[in-house]
Amino acid sequence: MSVRTAELLMGICTLLLSFGLMYNVISNDLTIGWLEGRGPGAGMWPFWLSAGMALASLWTIIRWFRGTTPESRNENPYIDPETVFIVGITVSAIFGLLLLTSVIGLYFSMMLFLLFYVKGIGRHKWPITLTVVFAMPVAIYMLFEVALNKYLPRGLPFFENIFLHIDDFRYSIMS
């Protein structure tokens, strides 16, 4: 696909998305205008932002047909094969992260994902890799489970028991 084709497809997709959002507001009987004494209706911002997006998309399509932008005349490939490969690897790794989350929990899945991505894809040295692999899950744990008191998926009972010991240790320090 060329840059020219990608620009046209994106203009069409965002135009259709805009119309879909505007239809959703209208079909759900959300007030588009101003309600006396209350302010904007529930559908005012979604509708008018979608209308603005539709106008911008329409303008992109018109400029594409006229060929007034460099992108509308560019026949080069939109994405080179190396980028497609990296995006494919990344999507596969994220999919693996999501699959492993229900088995070994988010923290251990994140560690494996970061190890693969930082060392395997990024080819960083071991000190940096290990720092990231251990620091990020600890930071996420501290943010969600300690500060926000929101528990993230911990996986099967064996892995959940590991965190029960961590939580017991944390609570013994705090009290």
Structure at a glance:
Helix content is 76%, strand content 2%.
Strand and helix layout:
Elements: H1 3-27, E1 34-35, E2 39-40, H2 44-66, H3 70-73, H4 81-121, H5 126-147, H6 157-174
Antiparallel strand pairs: 1-2
Helix pairs in contact: 1-2, 4-5
Outline the structure in words.
- The protein has 175 residues and is mainly alpha-helical.
- 76% of the residues lie in helices and 2% in strands.
- The chain has helices spanning 3-27, 44-66, 70-73, 81-121, 126-147, 157-174, and strands at residues 34-35, 39-40.
- It has a two-stranded antiparallel sheet.
- It is flat and about 65 Å long.
- It starts with a helix and ends with a helix.
- The model has no long low-confidence stretch (mean pLDDT 91).
The share of residues in helices is over 70%
Strands ordered across the widest β-sheet: 1-2
Low-pLDDT stretches? none
SSE order: HEEHHHHH
The number of helical segments is 6
Total strands: the figure is 2
Measure the end-to-end span: 61 Å
Mean of the pLDDT scores?
91
Shape field: flat
* Gyration radius over CA: 24 Å
**SS-derived structural category:** mainly alpha
Oligomer: single chain
**Beta fraction of the residues?**
under 5%
Descriptive terms for the model:
two-stranded antiparallel ribbon; mainly alpha; 6 helices
